[in-house]
Structure formats: structure tokens, C-alpha cells
């Protein structure tokens, strides 16, 4: 699945899980822009992902993790977080 499409599905899934209409994001985004994101037509900036996630009361990584799990159906949530833990632990080591 294309990354933009997976992000859109993940975003919509999180929004619907919180039972929020697109209009609930008017302080951070227009309904039209949110709709284009949810349909996988545009890619948001990191700042916009943060703003939208904050408006939903979820961590931005929740949306992104859901996105990558949708993109690769063979990937499990445990595998994804194991990889992330390992990569973050490696980045903490002195060079």
C-alpha cells in the first residue's frame, strides 16, 4: 500500500476511534485539507501531524505506527516496536 494512502487510513481510523468529525480540527486544519490527508492525496508536515494528533489526544507516533502497520501487513506491532527500540538504543550510544 502506498505510504500516503496508509497514512490517510490510519489518520481516519484514529479520528473515528475518538468519535471526532473533521470539523473538530478547525483550529489546526481545514476540513478540506483533513479530507485530502485521509484520502491519501497529500502528505502532512511533521508539525501538522503533531497538531492533528494533539487535537485528537493521541501521540503522533500512534498515527505513524498504525500507518506503517497498514503499509506492511506482514509487520506486527511487536516487530515494529522492537526495531524502533533497537534503533533508538543504538542512537543513544556515544560515537
Q: For the record, give the distance between the C-alpha atoms at the N and C termini, rounded to a whole number.
A: 36 Å
pLDDT < 50 runs, ≥5 residues: none
Query: Mean of the pLDDT scores?
Result: 94
As a percent range, the share of strand residues is under 5%
Secondary-structure class:
mainly alpha
Helix content: 55-70%
Count, helices: 5
Question: Can you give me a brief rundown of this structure?
Answer:
The chain is an all-alpha fold. The chain contains five helices and no strands. The mean pLDDT is 94.
List the defining traits of the structure above.
mainly alpha; Cro/C1-type_HTH; 95 residues; Helix-turn-helix domain-containing protein; globular
Chart the SSEs and their pairings.
Layout: H1 3-17, H2 31-38, H3 46-56, H4 60-71, H5 77-92
Please provide a written account of the structure.
This is Helix-turn-helix domain-containing protein. Residues 11-64 form the HTH cro/C1-type domain. InterPro entries: Cro/C1-type_HTH. This protein has 95 residues and is mostly helical. It has 5 helices and no strands. The protein is globular and about 45 Å long. The model has no long low-confidence stretch (mean pLDDT 94).
Amino acid at each position: 500500500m502506498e505510504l500516503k494512502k496508509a497514512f490517510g487510513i490510519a489518520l481516519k481510523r484514529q479520528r473515528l476511534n475518538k468519535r471526532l468529525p473533521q470539523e473538530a480540527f478547525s483550529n489546526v486544519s481545514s476540513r478540506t485539507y483533513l479530507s485530502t490527508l485521509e484520502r491519501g492525496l497529500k502528505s502532512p508536515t511533521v508539525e501538522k501531524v503533531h497538531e492533528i494528533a494533539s487535537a485528537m489526544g493521541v501521540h503522533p507516533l500512534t498515527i505513524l505506527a498504525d500507518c506503517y502497520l497498514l503499509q506492511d501487513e506482514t509487520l506486527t506491532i511487536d516487530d515494529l516496536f522492537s526495531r524502533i527500540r533497537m534503533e533508538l538504543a543504538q542512537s543513544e550510544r556515544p560515537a
